[in-house]
Amino acid sequence: MPRLQEEGSGPLRGFWLSTVGSGRPTETGTIHEPTGLDLAMKLHYIKAVYIYSAEIASDLTVMHVKGTFFPVFNQIPWITGRLRRSSSGRPFIKCNDCGTRFVESQCDLTVDEWLRVQDRSVDESLVYHQPVGPDLAYSPLIYIQMTRFKCGGIALGLSWAHIMGDPFSLSHFFNLWTRAFAGEEVYSTKTSDWRRGFRKPNSTGKKEPGSIKRINPIGDLWVIPNKSKMSTYSFNLTVKQIQSHFPAKGNEFEILSGIIWKCVSKARGESEPVTITIIRSDPEGLKPRAVRNSQMISSVDVDFSIADAKLEEIVKCIGEATDERSEIDEAGEKDDGVLDFIVYGAKLTFVDLSEVDFYDAKIKKTSPLSVYCNVQGIGDDGAVVVFPAADREERVVTVTLPEDEVEKVQCELRKCGLITSLVNGE
């Protein structure tokens, strides 16, 4: 079996690009105004891959897949629009029905062969990604890649501009497509029908939220200027494995975050991170589903060494994370939304997607065999994304760090027993 991550020697081939638009024209002059929180996320992108078996997908045609996106785009017209800037420089989306880019590719492996690789970050090659810019008027906000495996199974990979919405929004969009594919009538709540403000439950009065980092202007090419080359790997583990081997008060995500924070701190030594960012679902914002940024972004700051601290103490601090969405929204609105920020990786970031209903995306009443999700555009402090596996009792953990830290952190993860072997399965 070939090494899936080696450029130029992988099993993917034959990329054909086309465009898919809405099924009906949007009213002339319609625009979508991003919030301050939306604008703060604009340098980030979400990547997701859904893999379906040959038994389910062998008779799916490209035209059928494309055609059933029409009614979904009709409901959410701004995601097929294009970005513009107002006279002040503030970005907005012109709902001009320019469409999304659709990419067709082939894989020389079967689905079973592809899924044998333990490190699911290989799925990133199933997502066609281009950043927004440098010409905003011609940059799609979504790329959809359909890959046909040798056995007849398919993978549908999405690259999604975070300015439109969070991972829950991407999942909502894709679940709408599977319902449209099944012949159901679909409907998505408009953001104008939803309260877009955020409460200040734990406002600290800080001038700038600790979970974001303002950077020098990057212009119209929306790419984070990393100082380090970033590397991604992933591994699976069970909820029982987390709770039984690492007993502490807190849910599995908080315990897992505490363990990995401690491992990263040991690997970094004197430069250990004492401030982290926690991104998770808003307990008050799960319904109604809509395309928006409503994820809770919190900050944790400690005045002690994480490397030397007890896990219970670390988990307790994570559980007391301060919600900073209101402050981020205000920061995104400054100077009429023209400032540039990093959220993921501005500080070491932990993302809890365990409540995202990825496996509700059923084709012919059957869930995908595997789903992968990660963020494109992570700052130098790195990020850890946790999301459900096909087995409800398992979690997939995707870690993105500077390349020169990966081996050190893996070593610490093995020492504490979180992983038992090399994560790439070798």
Automatic annotation (TrEMBL):
GO terms for molecular function: acyltransferase activity, transferring groups other than amino-acyl groups. InterPro entries: CAT-like_dom_sf, Plant_Fungal_Acyltransferase. It holds the Pfam family Transferase. Signal peptide: none annotated. This is Uncharacterized protein. Belongs to the plant acyltransferase family.
